[in-house]
Amino acid sequence: MPDSSENQSRPAAGTTPAVEFLNVEVSYGKFVAVHDFSLTIEKGSFVTLLGPSGCGKTTLLRSIAGLVDITRGQISIGGRRIDDVPIYRRNIGLVFQNYALFPHKSIFDNVAFGLKYRNVPKAEIASRVTRALEMVRLPGSEKKLPSQLSGGQQQRIALARAIVFEPEVLLLDEPLSALDANMREEMRVEIKKIQKQTGITAIFVTHDQEEALSMSDRIVVMNAGGAEQIGTPQEVYDRPATPFVADFLGKANMLPGRVSALRTGGVSVILSGGHALDLDTPRTLAVGDAVTVVVRPQMLTVRPGPGANRLQGKVTSTSYLGGRIIYEVDIGEAAPLRVNTAISGQMAAEGDSIELGFAPSDCVIL
Ligand code: ATP
């Protein structure tokens, strides 16, 4: 795993991390679903496990809850190893994609479940349930049944049920994926707000990069059972450490080429289709090195100004987004360039010639 952001992922010396994975492996029979996974999660932070289907996100989440056994390594919560602690003794709140409410129990009983189970006195149960329902903005819904609520409301109840007993860690497994687009956005903001208000440590699983970027303090980008990169949303988006991260987070343009000269603070690169670029990079490279230049679609501008790298091509497709437009442009390199730009003046049409540009600093060299 690239190491630059791993150091930043460690909490300050002396503080006990909320959750710590150390060289964790999880196998299902002979199949290793998660291998050599290490991660330190600071108290009160919101960490997202992001990756494509099957990369092992849910397996990791379930291993914290005790729903799957790890086959190697160790997991600690609040500094205590939990490998041998049974599920019911782990103080963890869980929210799943499908709400998992008890259909025949009232909202009160659904939310109170974890408190009754922990033998909390009756009067305290009532006041805590009231507070939790206020927090998820469904006060007064105690007597209703889950079926009388919308999907979004049911998911809020699931959230209230998970936080009402003040768990050490809140685990959220794709909690928004069953909701429609508008509700999803609203719930993103809501979950984040409640997490900050309560100061609870949250681990969120999703394959949706927008969700991850907008909600997380840190993102673990996962691929094939391991962590590809760990960092803040800005770090993983702006400074992807691998081609996989660059592509998974927002469809980056990846241009293969070779270093042709060294410059102060950067290099010159000739792309495989012949374009010459001047690029900034903190990396130490040598003339002749094979590189991949990663440029985000938003970093490309139409009608570039002085000092920019220029690329001429023909528009092969356009997608109007209202205020912005996505062009695909054939520049004679292996793949067309994707450009996502604000519309100013006339839009280009399919078949038009176009000049694109980006500043030497607006790329990453892998
Ligand atoms: P998704 O987003 O589709 O839920 P994920 O990243 O959460 O994917 P996991 O559910 O953790 O992935 O699964 C990781 C791998 O382990 C997958 O290849 C999956 O097929 C496999 N797997 C998961 N559960 C089991 C199981 N009980 N038995 C055997 N293999 C399993």
Q: Choose one word for the global shape.
A: elongated
N- to C-terminal separation? 14 Å
Radius of gyration: 24 Å
The level-1 CATH class of the largest domain: Alpha Beta
What is the CATH architecture annotation of the largest domain? 3-Layer(aba) Sandwich
Q: Strand content of the residues, in percent? A: 25-35%
CATH superfamily of the largest domain: P-loop containing nucleotide triphosphate hydrolases
Number of domains: 2
Strand neighbour order, sheet with most strands: 6-7-8-3-9-10
Helix content: 10-25%
Helical run tally = 9
Name the structural class: alpha+beta
**Pattern of helices and strands:** HEEEHEEEHHHEHEHEEHHEEEEEEEEEE
Low-pLDDT stretches:
1-11
Largest sheet: 6 strands, mixed
Assembly state (oligomeric)? single chain
User: What is the fold-level CATH name, i.e. the topology of the largest domain?
Assistant: Rossmann fold
Provide the list of bound ligands, each named once: adenosine-5'-triphosphate
> Can you count the beta strands?
20
Q: Provide the residue-averaged pLDDT.
A: 91
